[in-house]
Structures are given as C-alpha cells and as structure tokens.
C-alpha cells in the first residue's frame, strides 16, 4: 500500500499535523473526528473529511459506521479517478465490512483499476495489484495486470507479462462463463512459445518463454484448454520439448507431460519419451539416475506392451534395463532398489522379456520375486514392495513362491550356521534376528494369499475349496487363517523367549513381533467375521456377524504389542479404529493424541478419529475446549482470507505453476468434507448438551460459500494403515471404520439436516419488535415455506441419488430419510389452507416417518448373536445408532413444536383463525411429537440401564471368559502371546473403564 | 519403489508417513506454501508406489538484508536447508542424500555461494552424514535450541551452522576449517540471516509486535529462533 502501517493502522500522510497523527495512532477516535472536521473546514482538503469518516467507522454506532460505506459508494458511482490515499484509508476502515456489507470486487477493486489506469507507472499500481490479488478479486487484478503489462511491455521485467497471462487464465478457471480468457492466455503464450522456438537467442526484453515456470505455465494452459494436438506437437519441439527441458535439468514438464499423455492413452509417445529420457542419463546428458523413478519404469513397461510394434519395444526396454543393471552397483540404495523393482515390473508387465531365459522349474515372475526378496526381505517396506506382484500370481505360481520363501530362509539359516563357527556372537545373533524378520514376512505373505481369490476353486453345488489346504472354504479360508495365528504366535513366543534376539531387534529395520502381531490380529479379525460396514440395515450392530471373543483377542493382542512398539504409527492407528468400534472412544482418544495430528495434516488425518465422534462419545466434548478445537483453528487460519495462503509470494517469485496449484488446493480446502465434518460434529455435540449454536450453519464463516451444488471433497489419508489385504478385496481401513468414509453426499446431507434444525430452532432477537406484525408474519411464513421447499427438494435429490445409501450407515440412512420426510410434512402442514381438506400426502408422509423411526428403535434391541455372558456389549458398540435415534427423535419433536407454536402464534395474531394450521395437520404433528417424546424417555432409560449394568461387578471375568473360554488352538496361541490371563486383566480394566466413561458422558446428554 | 519429484500442494494430504514420526515437526499451511510459492525447485519430495510421501526437503534462497552488508556476520546469497525428513520405512536408502543433492543442484542453478543448515551438536549421525556430503562446521551457535535432546534438565542446546560451498565459491571463501572454534550468539544468526521474517511467517506476528515482544521481554529471542530450527530426520 502507499501508506505505511503502524500497530495495524495506516500511517497518515506526512503533511498531517502531529496532533492529528498522534490521536490517529493512539486510536483516540473522538479526538480524530473533532480535529479532522476542523482541518477539513479550514483547509478544504477532502483527505481530512476521509480521516473523519474513517474515525467514525471505528465507533460502535451503526450510523457512524455507515458513513464510510456511503462514501465508498459515492466514489464508485462518480466515475472519477479516486485519490489513492483516501481510497486506502477507506479500504482500511472497511476491512471488517468486506464480504459482508460490501464486496471488494464491486467497490475497491474497480476503484483501484480506475486509479491504476490513470497512473500506470506509479509504484502504487503494483501495490494495487497485490491488494486485488490478496482479496481474490481476479477481475480487477487481471485488469490491473493488463495495464501494467502494456505499460512495461518493452522492459526487461517480464513478470508483468506473465502476471497478466496467469491472471487471465485464473479468471477463466474461476468462472466458466469466461472461457474466452483462457483462449486469450493461450494465444499470448503461443506467441511467446513461437518466439522462443524461432529465436537463436532471446534478449531480456523479448516476450518469449525462458524459465521453467514460464514453459510449464504454457503447457498447463494448453492442457486446460484441451489443446491436445498443440500440446503433443510442442512436447517434441527442439527448445520447449520435454527432452530439451530435461537436458537443462528441468524435470517438471517431463513428469506433467507423462500424466497428460497417460490420460490420453498416447502410449507411442510415452514410450518414446521414457526411452529417450532414460537414454539421456546413460549418454551422460543428464545425471545417470535423473529420471530413474518408479513412475517412469512403470509407464515405460506399460507403454512397451501397448505400442504397435510391441516386440521391438520390449527389446528396447530390455536393452536399457540391462544398461542400468550394469550401472546398478554405483547407484545409491534407493536407485539400486528402483532398478530391482523395475526388473520385477517388466517381468510382470512384459512376459516376452523373459522368453530366452534358461529353463527353470519356477516361472520367471516367481524367480524374480525370490531374487528381490533375497536382497530386501529384512527391509521395512519389503511387504509393500512385493504385495501387488504376489497378488497377481496364479495359484501354481503362489505354490512355487511359497517354496522359494523357505529357500531364502535356508540361506539365512546357512549363514547363521556359518556364523556359529566363524562369526562373532554379535553377528550370530543379528543373523538370528534377521531369521525372525523373514519368518514375520512369510506370515504376512501367507495372510495376503488368503485374501487372493486364486487360492479358491469352485466345486459342485456352489461350494468352493481352498487350494492351499484342500479344505472346503470361502474367502478367506478359516483353516489357513487359524494356521497363521498358531504359527505366527509360535514365532512371536520364540522371539520373546530368546534374549539374544530381543537384544538385536534394534539393529533391524522393524521389530518382527510387530509384523507377526499384525498377521495374527488380521487373521483373528477375519476369523471373527469382521467385514466392511455397509448401509445394510441388518448389520447395524457389530456383533450381528462378528464373534466377540475373536474380535477382543485381536484388540488385546495389538494392545499388548503397544508395550514393545509404542511409537509405531500403524499400530496406534489400527488400535484407535478398533477401540472406536468397541465403543471405547475415550481410550481411543488417549491413543490418538500422541500421534501428534496437528496443523496442516489435520485435514487428511482427523477423520480417522473425529468422523462420527459426537455419535459415539458426546462426553469428549464436555469441557471448555472441544477436541476439535485444533482442527477448527487450522481452518480459521488457513481460510481466513479469500485468497489462497501466500499467493502473492508466488506472484513475486514468478512461480506460475505454484500459483495455479495453490489456487486449486485452496479451492479444494474450502470444499473439504473434513471441514464440514468438523462443523457438524461440534454442532451435534452442542445439541447433546443443550448449548446454543454459535450461528446458523449457512452463515458459518467457514461454510458460507458452500451451496447445494458445491462438490465437497474427501482427502482422508489412509496411507499409514498396515494394509495386508490384496488389491482383490477392500483395503483394511474399510473393515475398521464404523461406516462408509466421508463423502460429498453424506456431507451435504449433514449440512442440510443442520439447516433444517436451524430453521426449527430459530428465535427472533428478544428486542425485536415488528412495526407491522401482520406483514412480517406473512413474510415469515413465505420465507419458512420457501426454505422448507428448498430443503425438502435438496434432501430428496441427495437421498435418491443412485449411490447415496452406500455412503451412509443404516442409522444415518434412516435419520436423513426422516429429516427429508419431516421437511416435506412440515411444508404441507404449513401450506395447507384451513378451509380445504389436508392433502393425503401428509398422513402418508407422517406414517413413513413413524415407520422409519420405529425401525431404527428396534435396532437398539439386543440381537440374537449378542454374547449371553455379556449382553451389555451390544448396546455399548451400538452408541452410533442411539445417537441418531436421539437426533431423529429431537428433529421430530422440534418439528411438532414448531408446527404447534406456529399455529398458536397465528391464532393469537389473527383472531379470525384463518391463518392457523388445519386441524388434521395439527393433529398429525401432535401425534408425531408424542411418539418422539415417548422415545426420548425410553432412550434416557436405555442409557440409565447401561450405566447400571456397567456399575455391576464381574466384568473382568466376563470379558476374559469371552476372550479365552473356548480354549482352542487359537485361544491358547493368543493367550501365550499376551502373556496369559493375568497380563490381560489390566487391559480389561482399561476397556471397562472407557465404557463407563463413555456412558457417563451419555448420562449428561439432554433428552428433552 | 520411489519417485523423486517437485512438491505440489496436494502432497500435504499424504504427509502422514513422514509427519506422524515424532521427530518431524508439522507446520502451519502457510509455512509449507511459502516455500512452495517462493522456492518451488527447492521443495522436493520422494513418493512411494501408493502415492504416500516418504521423504521431503524444504529449502530457501536468501541473503542478509543489505543493512548488514558490512557486518562480519553478513550472509551472502545462499541456500538454506530448512527441513529434511524421511519416513522410518524409507531410511537407509539414500533418500536424504538424494534430496540434499537436488537442493544443492538448485542452489548452483541459482548461483548461490553455499548451502547451509543448522544441526544439534549432539546429533552425531546427522553431522557425520553432512560431513560425508562435503559440509563442514562454519560456527557454533550457542543455545540455539530451546531444549536439549539428550538431557531434559537442560534448557538449551548448541547448534552447528554447517556449510557446503557451491560452484560459485571457487576460492572457498565461505567455509572454515576450524568452525568448531567460532562461537556466536543466536541473535547474530537471527539478525544476519533474516530469520525474523521466517519467524513471523510461522507465528503470524507482525514485525513490530515481534520486536516489541522481544524488547519488553515477553518473547525470548531464543524462543523466536526455535521456530526456525532445521529438522533432520532421515538417517
């Protein structure tokens, strides 16, 4: 800005006298007003009048504040070039009104454009551009940038040209009606590209493409425009082509070009580019391993299999790969491994590559897997590296692979035996520890095979047989899983009983007990019958299909592993999910906190704990600071301004692709499902305790740009989970979640439901008294009906969308259906004239509401599968249903209250009685209200009963019996790993205590 | 299998493998985006086959403000490694070395005199690693860190300011052989290295507020410096 800022206030012009300066700096507004008025009268300088208006805007009175808005409005209307000092004073004074009372793009933006057009060479012109960019007024910013570009067209400062192009392009991205701007940006860049290609050397004043950022901006614009032919042609050009850029050490274009070409299926060009890029390294034109990345090798191999002359292509792949294999010894471990994986990749994608290999009883794929594991079996990432490939093996190959694994074991054993004679004790013990690491990997791989459909064969009468163990089985084979539990437990106990191995675990990449614990726990969870939660109403209770004993054993085993590896993230996350399923939210929270999910990573990771948390444990929200506080603070800080965080820095640095990426990231963050989740969870928790909502959800500052058409985005990161599952089935996190993950559909439904609750709970301010009550009442009714109509239509649209139910739990499905029906019923009730019969749709809608509500009530009852020894387990793991039953009951009750109170108000206002509700409508609403009230009493009793059950003694024995009562091989194996029943007692204590804590929180919930 | 490429903002949704490691700090969004906005080529990531970020380096190019040009602590145009981290599962594969080399290449391309970084004097693994890459101790910054990694009873720890000369420094003017003997106060680093600006970026303070807080004693200058500590967890 032209003026400086001190203590957050603008510094006045130097010509202003000290007395006024001091009063302004001190914020002594009454003095400022008095002095400025006096100076304005004496000096006839409008600047002093502006100071006075700004000072008035700092006072509390709304009349004082409106003066500055009027002044700005006049400036906009009079079409004259404004005084920049006055303009900046006003901009400062209006800082709190922008986006609310005035739009920057309608006021200050155009005023700044007007000023810059009149003073294009002033340094303040650049500051005006910054101001518009930082307010994200792209229209004004683009106009200023165009003016600056014209003004400085022949100077060496090329930023103006690219700011102009970038802003022109951004404008077209932000508003689809401005597509022509995209064309304009493309044309300018095309001219620049031609100039670059055709000039032997660019001068500093030439308007060509020089830097990597400028070149990549050009390609981005082409891509966005869908100018495929131009993109491909330019990509192969001598100066701006991808290879030419690579030679200059610029990798970005190459990577982005491959992404685009893959989407278009341009395999011939992908093949050529990858080949030539890899050759550049071999020929010394770039560093050897510059493009020796996973992605390049994968694309290279895939492209070779898809090009017209695949045979020659495969040959070329082999030649290049061989050259890299020759160079492998000089590479750092990262590239050595990348090359090893490239061999695996080509073996799997290009079978022809191994045609001339020597005969072997093993398939080339298995052979290469064996060779790879020979080198890397003891590395932490070994399982993830080979998982995908192993899942692709045929059953015969799987058998071969299982034969290879002990082969590696033998080699390690031989090394171990050798070490007995020749090596030091330390190396001997390290070797023993590595042996156990291999055993752990073998267990994980065996588990993986149980998730691969190739291990099953169909038999007559629809049954199937496990090819691994020859037993009748379905996927996963229970017999194989039991075997894994027993064998992995034996290995686990072997480690724990060998002091020497224990001492050498720190020398390994990973504690093998952790891998073994994962294999055992996953097997137990599968044996327990745990499946991904769906919207199937019959599977609302965890114990409907899950064996509680086996499930508890898995949790116990993982919890006991936590003692040995407390900092392992995978283990902690797994336990957090399992405890949430088990209804132990407070204990899950204790495990979650040390993970340190804070600041920037919250958007991606917080849903792993906070999604649906208010429905599991409203008690967590008791206290002065809600658990979601950090999350809210992250969004408040990151989305405070309209512009993307730090965007001007990117403009100044000439980072044009950063500008585009940051803008896209910002747009996505503002539409984040996690953001919606945060607001909704807090609101639901507040409703539990009868606290006032801070504002209506539509007016929430973080959500005020969300409309029903906004596509909300889920970016939850499931990467840190230990996923032992094959790609043929769902990933592990889908088994562990309470229900389907965040989605656009669920987020919108939650948003709409909250809007409906806002409508029901709206109360006008106490001091509000309408001058014309009848007129206001009519308008209120119209507004209510319009809102209900909108809500009902949007809710129906989302609920009836083809896949919506797959994004909801059964309880959520019923709740949102009820809200949708309620909005429709209320609309009918309020809009039906008293003089005519009420539409029959009202009674059918209320009947549907009651039916849906009652079906949800029945799901709270104990299921036939509830463990007899522990009947309380079912309700403890079904708190989510309890929560949505309560929410549904409240919505019904408030709808009924809204209707009756509306009727009462109308009757007292309009004595003719014509504007009240129809008798039948009123009666329907009252019946609904009574049903909800009765249900709420029942629910309160349900919680009280639960509390009493948990207060009873004998929990320790009952839970332990559930875990170990069968005494079979599996139970004995797990008992051995966790150190017996005595060791498990402390764990049971923690679980029961967490249940008690959760129910205590529910005990404080309001049921009225 | 690993792909090394330039950072992009979407990677912030895939940082879990690195940032859930207790030794890796997670910053505010503005901090990451500032680096991406100003020095995108100095912000590189290593990505695994599932799209998870398993390592990253953040660096910047800067010099001391001109006002310090004649100060003995003036820092000429150089690159600074702000954070380098590798997920536990990807350690010992040379990813830290590779990322550092990439940053050095970018520093050379930007005609920097040297690359520098701060490391705890007790972080022997990191020091050995950097020495193996050609870095040497330029000076010891006393009480640079506000805690002690090995001794909880101590409230501070010294840092080595380590440097590696780039191609521009043909005469090796910006390195020392006996750097361990040169001790400086943290305020020297702060004033000369333009660290205030970075601290402001982290804390969202205004410059004047920061100065006032330091002057009135409500903010310790070392606390300010801790916000800018280099992170090194990759060995």
Q: What share of residues of chain B is helical?
A: 25-40%
What structural category arises from helix and sheet content of chain A? mainly alpha
Note the total helix count of chain A.
46
**CATH level 4 superfamily of the largest domain in chain B:** Gcn5-related N-acetyltransferase (GNAT)
Q: What is the chain-wise order of helices and strands of chain B? A: EHHEEEHEHEEEHHHHE
Number of discrete domains of chain B: 2
Family (chain A): Belongs to the MDM20/NAA25 family.
Pfam families (chain A): NatB_MDM20
GO cellular component, one term (chain A): NatB complex
GO molecular function (chain B): protein-N-terminal amino-acid acetyltransferase activity
Tell me what the structure shows.
The complex is a heterodimer of chains A (1008) and B (235). Among the domains of chain A are: 18-218; 599-739, no CATH class; 743-764 and 771-942, no CATH class. Chain A is built from 46 helices and four strands. In chain A, helix 10 (179-198) crosses helix 11 (212-225) and helix 25 runs antiparallel to helix 26. Chain B is of the alpha/beta class and 235 residues long. Chain B folds into two domains: 3-185, Gcn5-related N-acetyltransferase (GNAT) (Aminopeptidase), CATH 3.40.630; 186-234, no CATH class. Helices cover 29% and strands 25% of the residues of chain B. The longest helix of chain B has 15 residues, at 95-109. Chain B is globular and about 50 Å long. The two termini of chain B are 18 Å apart.
In short:
The complex is a heterodimer of chains A (1008) and B (235). Chain A has a two-stranded antiparallel ribbon. Chain A has a two-stranded antiparallel ribbon with strand order 3-4. Chain A is 65% helix and 1% strand.
């Amino acid at each position: 800005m032209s003026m400086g800022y001190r203590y957050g206030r603008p510094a006045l012009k130097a010509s202003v006298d000290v007395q006024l300066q001091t009063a302004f700096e001190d914020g002594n507004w009454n003095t400022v007003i008095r002095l400025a008025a006096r100076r304005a009268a004496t000096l006839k300088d409008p600047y002093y009048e502006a100071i006075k208006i700004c000072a008035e805007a700092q006072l509390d009175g709304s009349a004082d504040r409106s003066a500055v808005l009027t002044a700005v409005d006049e400036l906009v209307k009079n079409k004259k070039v404004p005084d920049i000092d006055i303009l900046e004073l006003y901009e400062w004074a209006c800082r709190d009104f922008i986006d609310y009372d005035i739009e920057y793009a309608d006021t200050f933006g155009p005023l700044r454009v007007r000023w810059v057009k009149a003073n294009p060479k002033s340094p303040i012109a650049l500051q005006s551009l910054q101001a518009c960019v930082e307010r994200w007024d792209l229209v004004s910013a683009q106009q200023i940038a165009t003016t600056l570009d014209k003004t400085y067209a022949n100077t060496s400062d090329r930023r103006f040209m690219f700011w102009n192009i970038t802003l022109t392009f951004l404008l077209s991205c932000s508003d689809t009606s401005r597509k022509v701007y995209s064309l304009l940006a493309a044309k300018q860049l095309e001219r620049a590209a031609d100039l670059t290609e055709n000039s032997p050397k660019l001068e500093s004043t030439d308007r060509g493409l020089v830097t990597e950022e400028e070149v990549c901006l050009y390609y981005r614009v082409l891509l966005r425009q869908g100018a495929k032919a131009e993109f491909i042609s330019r990509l192969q050009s001598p100066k701006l082509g991808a290879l030419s850029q690579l030679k200059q050490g610029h990798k970005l274009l190459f990577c982005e070009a491959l992404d685009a070409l893959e989407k278009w299926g341009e395999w011939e060009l992908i093949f050529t580019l990858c080949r030539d890029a890899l050759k550049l390294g071999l020929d010394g034109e770039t560093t050897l391993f510059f493009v020796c990345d996973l992605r390049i090798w994968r694309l290279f191999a895939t492209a070779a299999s898809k090009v017209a002359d695949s045979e020659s292509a495969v040959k070329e792949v082999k030649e290049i790969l061989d050259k890299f294999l020759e160079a492998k010894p000089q590479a750092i471990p990262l590239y050595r491994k990348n090359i090893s994986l490239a061999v695996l990749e080509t073996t799997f994608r290009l079978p022809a590559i191994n045609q001339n290999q020597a005969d072997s009883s093993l398939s080339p794929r298995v052979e290469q897997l064996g060779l790879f594991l020979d080198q890397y079996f003891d590395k932490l990432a070994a399982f993830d590296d080979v998982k995908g490939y192993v899942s692709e093996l045929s059953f015969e190959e799987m058998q071969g692979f299982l034969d290879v694994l002990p082969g590696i074991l033998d080699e390690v054993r031989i090394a171990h035996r050798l070490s007995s004679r020749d090596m030091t004790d330390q190396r001997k013990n390290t070797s023993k520890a590595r042996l156990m690491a291999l055993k752990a990997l073998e267990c994980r791989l065996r588990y993986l095979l149980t998730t691969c459909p190739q291990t099953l064969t169909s038999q007559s009468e629809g049954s199937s047989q496990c090819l691994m163990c020859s037993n009748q089985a379905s996927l996963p084979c229970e017999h194989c899983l039991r075997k894994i539990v027993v064998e992995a437990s034996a290995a686990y106990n072997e480690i724990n009983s060998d002091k020497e191995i224990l001492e050498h675990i720190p020398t390994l990449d990973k504690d093998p007990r952790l891998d073994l614990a994962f294999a055992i726990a996953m097997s137990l969870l599968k044996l327990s019958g745990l499946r991904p939660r769906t919207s199937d109403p019959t599977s609302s209770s965890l114990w409907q299909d899950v064996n509680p004993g086996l499930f508890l054993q898995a949790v116990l085993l993982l919890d006991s592993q936590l003692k040995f590896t407390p900092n392992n993230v995978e283990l902690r996350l797994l336990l957090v999910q399992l405890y949430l399923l088990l209804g132990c939210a407070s204990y899950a929270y204790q495990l979650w906190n040390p993970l340190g999910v804070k600041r920037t990573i919250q958007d991606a990771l917080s849903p792993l704990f906070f999604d649906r948390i208010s429905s599991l444990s409203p008690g967590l929200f008791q206290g002065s600071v809600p658990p979601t506080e950090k999350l809210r603070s992250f969004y408040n800080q990151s989305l405070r301004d309209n512009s993307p965080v730090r965007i001007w820095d990117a403009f100044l640095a000439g980072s044009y692709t950063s500008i585009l990426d940051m803008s896209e990231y910002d747009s996505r963050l503002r539409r984040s499902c996690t953001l919606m989740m945060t607001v909704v969870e807090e609101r639901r928790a507040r409703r539990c305790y009868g606290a006032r909502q801070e504002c209506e959800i539509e007016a929430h500052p973080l959500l005020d740009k969300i409309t029903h058409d906004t596509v909300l985005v889920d970016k939850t990161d499931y990467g840190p989970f230990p996923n032992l599952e094959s790609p043929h089935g769902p990933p592990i996190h889908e088994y562990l979640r309470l229900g389907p993950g965040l989605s656009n559909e669920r987020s919108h439904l939650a948003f709409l439901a909250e809007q409906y609750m806002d409508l029901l709970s709206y109360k006008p301010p106490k001091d509000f008294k309408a001058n014309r009550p009848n007129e206001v009442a009519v308008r209120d009714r119209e507004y209510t009906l319009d809102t209900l109509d909108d809500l009902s239509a949007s809710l129906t649209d989302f609920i009836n969308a083809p896949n919506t139910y797959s994004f909801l739990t059964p309880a959520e499905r019923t709740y949102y259906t009820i809200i949708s029906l309620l909005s429709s019923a209320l609309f009918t009730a309020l809009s039906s004239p008293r003089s005519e019969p009420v539409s029959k749709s009202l009674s059918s809608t209320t009947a549907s509401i009651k039916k849906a509500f009652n079906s949800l009530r029945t799901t709270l009852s104990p299921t036939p599968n509830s463990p007899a020894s522990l009947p309380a387990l079912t309700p403890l793991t079904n708190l989510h249903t309890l929560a949505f039953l309560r929410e549904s009951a409240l919505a019904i009750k408030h709808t009924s209250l809204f209707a009756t109170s509306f009727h009462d108000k109308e009757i007292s206002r309009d004595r003719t009685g014509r504007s009240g509700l129809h008798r039948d409508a009123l009666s329907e609403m009252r019946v609904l209200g009574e049903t909800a009230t009765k249900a709420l009493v029942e629910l309160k009793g349900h919680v009280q009963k639960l509390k009493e059950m948990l207060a009873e003694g004998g929990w320790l024995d009952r839970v332990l019996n559930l875990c170990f009562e069968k005494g079979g091989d599996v139970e004995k194996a797990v008992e051995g790993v966790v150190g017996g029943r005595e060791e498990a007692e402390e764990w049971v204590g923690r679980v029961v205590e967490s249940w008690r804590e959760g129910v205590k929180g529910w005990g404080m919930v309001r049921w009225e | 299998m690993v792909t090394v490429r330039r950072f992009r903002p979407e990677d912030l949704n895939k940082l879990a493998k690195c940032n859930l490691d207790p030794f890796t700090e997670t910053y505010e969004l503005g901090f990451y985006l500032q680096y991406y906005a100003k020095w995108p080529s100095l912000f590189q990531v290593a990505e695994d086959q599932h799209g998870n970020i398993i390592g990253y380096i953040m660096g910047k190019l800067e010099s001391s403000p001109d006002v310090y040009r004649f100060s003995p602590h003036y820092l000429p145009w150089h690159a600074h490694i702000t954070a380098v981290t590798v997920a536990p599962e990807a350690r010992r594969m040379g990813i830290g070395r590779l990322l550092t080399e990439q940053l050095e290449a970018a520093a050379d391309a930007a005609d920097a005199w040297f690359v520098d970084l701060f490391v705890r004097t007790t972080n022997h693994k990191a020091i050995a690693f950097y020495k193996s890459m050609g870095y040497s101790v330029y000076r010891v910054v006393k009480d640079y860190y506000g805690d002690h990694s090995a001794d909880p009873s101590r409230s501070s720890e010294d840092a080595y300011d380590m440097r590696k000369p780039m191609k521009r420094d043909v005469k090796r003017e910006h390195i020392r052989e006996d750097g361990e003997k040169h001790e400086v106060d943290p305020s020297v680093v702060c004033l000369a290295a333009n660290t205030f600006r970075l601290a402001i970026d982290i804390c969202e303070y205004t410059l004047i507020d920061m100065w006032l807080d330091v002057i009135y004693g409500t903010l310790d200058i070392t606390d300010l410096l801790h916000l800018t500590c280099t992170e090194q967890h990759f060995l």
